[in-house]
Amino acid sequence: MASVNFTEGHIKPPTAIHDVDQLLPNIVDGMAAARSHAVYAQIPNSFTSYAAGFRKVTYRHLANAVNGIAWLLSKELGQGKNTETLAYIGPNDIGYVVAILGAAKAGYAILVPSPRLVQADCVKLLDTASCKTLLTLQPPHGPLVQNLLKSGDDLPVISIPTIYELLGQQQEHYPYPHRYQDLKDRPLCMVHTSGTTGAPKPLIWTHKTAAAFIRELRAPPPENYSNAIAEIQSNTMFALFPFFHSGGIMIALIDAIASQTTVVCPLAGVPPSTPTIIEGLQQLDMDVFCAPAPFLEEIAKKPEWISAVTSRASAVVFSGADVSYATGRAFTKAGVRIQNLYGSSEGLTMPAIRARKDSYEDAWQYIQPHAYANITFQKQKGSDEEMFELVWIKNDEPEEIQPIFTVYPHLEEFHPRDLFSPHPHDQHLWRFRGRSDDLIATLTGELCNPIAFEQELSTLPEVNAVLLSGTGRWQKVLLVEPADAKIGDLIERIWPSIERANEKLSKTSRLAKTHVLVTSPDRPMLRSRKGTVQRAPTLRLYEQEIDDLYRIEGDGDHIRHEPIPVHLDMAGREREEL
Question: Which of 100, 69, 96 is nearest to 83 (CA)?
C-alpha cells in the first residue's frame, strides 16, 4: 500500500519522514509539496450531468481548497481555541472532505448531519453536539437547510463556496504547526447514528481514530493471505457511499489519503440511481467499483448493467448488508473479484484477511477478521439457525488500540449486535447475517432470521424491496415494495418465488399467501443514508395496515390475541452499519 509520512509542527509545508501516526491535514499538505500532481479524486464537471465528463483533483488542488476553507473560517470566526463544533450540509461531493480538513486547520471540528434528517432530529443532534454554527452553500438550499433557516432558532450560517469555486481560487498556505501527540485526542470530525431508535446521536472521530484506522489498514497479513482492504487500495475507485455517511467519509477522508487511492465521485446534485451510475461508468477508467449492497442487487437484475460494471472494474466491493448468492455469482461469472467488507460508524472498516487463492466458490460472501482486530464471536441462543454475535475486545497495547475504542474509550469490549454464521467448511470464515434487532421473535418462542428470505425476493425485477416481520405473532407478514405501477396481480406473479423463499425458513416460520401486503406508491419503505431498508421505521410506517391485515386474516392459529407492536424494541445502544 502506498503511503507517505511527513514532518510535523512547522509553519512551512511538511517534508517526508517515516513516522506512522499522522494528522490528516499534515498528510495532505505533505502530499501537495512532495507529490503535487498525484490525483486525489475525479469529480464530475457538473452537479447534475455526466455529459461534461470528469475533472482530476490533485493533492495540490485539494490542499489549496482546504486552505481556502481554513482562511474563510478564521476570517469569520477567528482561530478555534477548543475545537468548537461546526455543522456542514452541502452537495454530495468532496466538499465534505475539504470542510473537515479546513475546519481542522482552523481549530474546529465538523459535524456531518445527514441532509435526510427531519428538522427536529437535526436540531436535537446540533444541540447534543454543542454546535451553534452551520456551514452551507449559497441558495438554493435543500429541504433540511431551508427548514433550519425558517425554524426561528436564529442559527448562524456561514456561506462557503462550491467545490468548483474552491478549486479555482488560489490560496496561500494555511500553517498547521501541530504534532499528532498534541492533538491526538481532539475531535477531527463527528458523524452520527442513524436515528432509527430515537434522535440521532453524535459520534466523535478523533485524530487518534483516524490514526488507529490507518494502522489497521497497514497491518501485515499472515503467510499465504492478503490484507482484504489493501487489495483495493492505491487504485482508482468509483465510490457510491454518500459523503454525508460515515462510509463515504471513511473512504474519501481517511482511506484515500492514507493509501493514495483515487476516489471517483458520482453526481453531487442528483440522488444516485442505477441508470445514472451506469451512465457515469461509460466515461470512466477505474479499477474498483465500491457500492452499498442494495446497488449490487439492483445492478444484477439486468445483464447490460452487469456488463457496464465488469467491463471496467477488476474488483467489486460491497458493504452495509449481505448480498445474495445469485447477485454475487453474476459478478464473479463475469471474471471480476468481489470483496465483502464489514464496518460501522463507531468501528470503521474491520481489518480482514483473504486467502490468496479462495478455496470455496462462495468465499466472497464471508470475511475473515485480521488478528489485529481482536474479534470474537459469541453464540446466540434461541435462533432457528446457528448465529453468533460479533464482539470487539480492546487490545492491551495502547499503540494497537482499535478505532472503536477511541470512540468509546471507557469500554473494554463492544457488542454491536451484528450477527454472523460460520462457513460450513471453514470456521475462520464468517458471513454477515443481519442484526440481532432483525430477528423475528414469534409467539412460538422461535427466533427467525428473515435476511435470506428477503434476499431471495429482492432479486426479482418486479420488486424494489421486501421486509418480513411477525414479532409477537404466530404468522409472519411480508411487506412488498413494487418496482412499478403494475400491482394488480403482483402477489400472484411473485408467489412462486415466495414459495421457494419459504424453503429457507423453518416450517413454523413460513409465510401464508394471505399475509402479503403491498406498500403504497406514496409511502415507500424508509431507507438509510446508504440505501438499505430501515426495518423498525418502515414497520412503524405500516403498523396500522399490518394490524388491520391480522385483524382480517387472523394470525394463523384461529385464536384471538391482543395486538402486539409489530416493530422490535430496539432500546439500548444504537449503531449504524456501513
Answer: 100
CA distance 475 to 550: 9
Cα four-point dihedral sign 307, 313, 315, 318: negative
Q: Hey, which residues does 434 pair with through a beta bridge?
A: 419
Residue 562's pLDDT band, with cuts at 50, 70 and 90, is very low
Q: 464 lies in a domain?
A: yes
pLDDT of residue 55: 95
Residue whose C-alpha cell is 475504542 = 405
For residues 570-578, give the mean pLDDT: 43
Q: HEC profile for 480-508? A: EEECCCCCCCHHHHHHHHHHHHHCCCCHH
- Which three three-digit cell numbers place residue 519? 406498500
Structural domain contains residue 331: no
Which residue type is seen at 313? Answer: A
| Most confident listed range (49-63, 354-368, 380-394, 453-467) | 49-63
Taking the C-alpha atoms of residue 522 and residue 516, their distance in angstroms, rounded to an integer, is 18
Q: What is the CATH number of the domain that holds 493?
A: 3.30.300.30
- Rounded CA-CA distance 442/224 in Å is 45
Task: Answer whether residue 442 shows pLDDT above 90.
Answer: no
What is the reported pLDDT for 78?
96
Residue 448 lies in a domain: yes
Of 294, 295, 217, 296, residue with least CA distance to 256:
217
pLDDT for residue 236: 94
The pLDDT of residue 482:
93
For residue 66, pLDDT beyond 70? yes
Residue at 471 is within a domain = yes
For residues 438 and 451, the answer to whether their CB atoms sit within 8 Å is: yes
Q: Which residue has the cell 495502547?
A: 398
Q: What total of structural domains would you count in the chain?
A: 1
Q: What spatial distance separates the first Cα and last Cα of the chain, rounded to whole Å? A: 23
Domain coverage including residue 507: 439-553
